[in-house]
Amino acid sequence: MLRSLGQRPVTGSDEDPRVAELRTAVSRLRRELAALPSEFPDRGIAEDELATLAAMATGGMPEIPRLRRSLLLIAGAIGSVSALARGLTGVRDAVDLFGEPPHDRQSG
Description:
The chain has helices spanning about 15-35, 45-60, 65-80, 85-95. By secondary structure, it is an all-alpha fold.
């Protein structure tokens, strides 16, 4: 897995390695969620937000505030499902590669 913001794709593509990492992590968690036989109340929320993250990762450079919002919704929806903890950590780590969103600096 890519862990450094300074790493570049080896394949010669100009794709941001953070986006590739996000796409991989989201895909993995989506597969784990689909394979989970039990239902839970917020499963639909998790599935919807994972689809949103997948679309952002496919569309190029995602918006950091939207990434973080989706991550919070996913964590809230599946946070108590221990079978998905590893996949959720992978998505969180991938989102963290993008850093913090810029803060709105207004003089007061």
